[in-house]
Amino acid sequence: MSQSEIQFTFDDTTISAVSGQSVGAALLAANQRSLRKTRFNKNKRGIFCGIGVCFDCLVVIDGITNQRACIIEAKPGMKVQTQDGSNA
Amino acid sequence: MKNPDAIVIGAGVVGACTALSLSNAGLRVLVIDRGPVASGTTGAGEGNILVSDKEPSPELTLAIRSRDAWFEINTDIGGGFELEAKGGVVVSRNTKGISDLKKLASLQKENGVETIELDASTLQEAEPFISKDVDYGVLYPGDAQCQPMLAAAQIIRAVKKRGGQFIQGENVVKINSNAGSIVGLTTDKNTYSTPIIINATGTWAGEIAKLANSYLPIMPRRGYILVTSPAPKLINHKVYDADYVANVASGEADLQSSAVIEGTASGTILIGASRERVGFKNDLNIAILRQLARQAISLFPMLTNIQLLRAYRGFRPYAPDHLPVIGEDANVSGLWHAAGHEGAGIGLAPATGELITAQIKGDKPFMDPAPFSPKRFKGSEHVAV
Amino acid sequence: MVLMHNVVIVGGGPAGLSAALAAAAAGAPVLLIDSNSRLGGQYWRNSSTDLENQNEQHFDLATGLLLINAVEARKEIEVWSEAQIWSATNDEGKNTLRVIHQGKEKIVNTANLILCTGAYDRTLPFPGWDIPGVMTPGGVQSLLKGHGVLAGKRVVVAGTGPFLLPVAAGVIKAGGKVVSLIEANKSRRWLTSTIVVLENLSKIKEAFYYIKTISEGKVRAQFGYAVIAAHAGSTGELDSVDIARINRNFKVKKVKQVKCDVAAIGWGFTADTSLAGSLGCKQVVAKDESVVVWVDSEQQTNIPGIFAAGEITGIGGSDLSMAEGVIAGIAAAKFVGCKVDVLKAHRKRRAKRQRFANALIKAYPIKAGWKLWPNDRTTICRCEEVSLGDLKFSVEELGATDSRTAKLFTRCGMGLCQGRICGRSVVDLVAKELSVLPTDIDRISAVNRPIITPIPLGVLAQGE
């Protein structure tokens, strides 16, 4: 695997990822465990099942909500944001 | 309860509202269903409580009263079914459609429905994400929304608290009458005596009528609803194409669909509506799902990136003349029918209950129930599909 | 795009890879559809097909890489990666798969299909299980093997089943600290069946491979313990868990608190039968109460031409999956006219591995005591934030008498994961409220999903 480093943003922070890593993995490596707040109770959620089944690790990517961070590959320049309920 | 004052067969929204109405009028009511509450069409309902989709007619009078009755029930039983006075916006994008809509709206207005015309700019204010090529609509503040399964369940719960009873899991096998009058019914488990039976079994109302040696031509009309993933709040009202009104009245067997879109309290967006006469066929028709998606995107382009999460189908019970059946059986006295509401079952349920109760008690009903009477089928030759 | 292929295989894990190679070797062209970016499924999750470059050593990853490289090398096997099937219907012998691949929808029509859609960690709800930092062993493993990321520095590994061992070993090898490794069951009954042990010496070897790493990491496994609650710190993220000594029935005896930043908790596996169910394949309830796809001795489902192999026919591990995959591949190739037969040796191998799988299921049961761990405030449906109290209300006050009705009243199972995580637990908890046993119908209806994965409305609208 190419060890090239890529960068994307998470809210206001720049996050480094190894090419091929998922957004969720890169965020976890950067100590970012909470990815969103739930719709009704505003509870924090992060990665749970890690394989794309539970839909807990939702983030907003380039304006589109409900993106599973654990299975989407981080790409250079991606704009990732905490998902607040169903909103960006 | 072996000798109730009345038995309601069917614990869907119509059965529940009728049971509540009778209960409030002092009758001891037994509700029987072969399955759980809302296990028929109610369980597949969208939750529409509309005054916007009916021309001035007995059905509109029924709808206007019923809509208000929903809010009275909400207060009476303490809520718990997500009732919301959200309002509806009907739009049209072609000249004839717009002119028809204007005519309809002004007739409805004369008959007690609040309507507000929207031009391109007020329409954009009401629905910021609606397609820019829509430049005319009518807002109906009276249109409302609820969660139909919760509504039926909360109402049955109230009926039980007021001395009524609900029995689940018994199948009615015989309707017993003597000299042309109801004396009771027999299920696969028990026999009950009562002088009054209300048939609120929706798509199966014809079968129940048959058990009483009577006749009711009720047929199923399949419909799908698409449910999206929880989405940002993009749609403020129920929004529909003016074609929706025409569809309801149409008798064609082929698939018909027109856009009906709204957001819900939980964040999902519901997309309908389709109508097909395919009996009780249970398969998933992918072509319909695509058609509904296309129509929805045409009205709200930003839906392109919103995901379809699930789709469900229900069977709307309808009579050949597309009017509900509310009233005493043509042949058997004491047997009352409250069925065949097609796609308006939820909206019309409370007023249906009121009409039935008033007639049973001999009180003056809020409107003349004759147009809905089952006696209109006496002597007809319709064959159930 | 409409295509017709001879053998279509869904799933690129041990079963799917084995089936693909067996079918191709028998002379049938193959289309292998996989949802991940790399072949290998969950079991052989990797970040490169070069053994030297792995982020973490896995006992038989070498076998996996061998199969992956073999599949990629064969021209008769076309592979679609990152392909998601959103809908599948069966109409009189023709199966139509609607696949989202490279941003577009592709339609695959085939008479011949092998389903190898695998399984995912089974989870049980308990107070705090939705706090960020609580994960599944599969999740921790995937982050490590697939992405080179250690989920945390102080890791608790808990639950039941042999899968906990490689996860703990992986954390240790990657430089993390396993602060607690606990297994709920005490029974090592499978060890006492001599035949099973002798037949599966390689499995013993594998277990000792992990045990060695674990003891070198100065970690001692404890038996008869479970995580029954998790607590958040001031950041709202995982800070500690309650570890309880439990009896044979999983009832709590004594509790102690352990600080951690990750808890990897898994209770066996749940088969992912959504695709099979959508096509109308007969599903049955297995001994471990999971819903699985029924197959005959040639791995064919009740629908002629549709075969199934691997975890979806019964949780049994990678070796059994491979044995089933080979048989399914041969049987499918035969179905399309290739001159092949399933050999006695194939059946013997499968039978041997099936015996081992059965022994494991017996050794790692999930006992009813877990239902007392959640309280009324505990989230049961994570997606829709439905609590145990909400579920109880739907039964006690709204009259729900089965899990399907409870679902309609509470929205349990209606969220994005469509009940994949909570479904099994809801069936058990509702049955407990009603003081009845869950029926097979309850369990099977909980996995009914005609829309298999969410699909953007725009993609749906453009398709044929």
Describe this structure in words.
The complex is a heterotrimer of chains A (about 90), B (about 375) and C (about 475). Chain A contains 1 helix and 7 strands; from the N terminus they run E-E-H-E-E-E-E-E. The radius of gyration of chain A is 12 Å and the shape is globular. Chain A has one domain (about 5-85): 2Fe-2S iron-sulphur cluster binding domain, sarcosine oxidase, alpha subunit, N-terminal domain (Ubiquitin-like (UB roll), Roll). By secondary structure, chain A is mostly beta strands. Helices cover about 30% and strands about 25% of the residues of chain B. Chain C has 3 domains: about 1-120 and about 270-340, 3-Layer(bba) Sandwich (FAD/NAD(P)-binding domain); about 125-265, FAD/NAD(P)-binding domain, CATH 3.50.50; about 375-445, Arc Repressor Mutant, subunit A, CATH 1.10.10. In chain C, the strands form 7 sheets. Chain C has a 5-stranded parallel sheet, with helices on one face. Chain C has a 5-stranded parallel sheet with strand order 10-17-11-12-13, with helices on one face. In chain C, helix 1 (about 15-25) runs parallel beside helix 8, helix 4 crosses helix 6 and helix 10 (about 390-395) crosses helix 11 (about 405-410). The model of chain C has no long low-confidence stretch (mean pLDDT about 90). The interface of A and C includes residues 33 and 35 of A. Strand 17 (about 305-320) of chain B pairs antiparallel with strand 24 (about 455) of chain C, so a sheet runs across the interface.
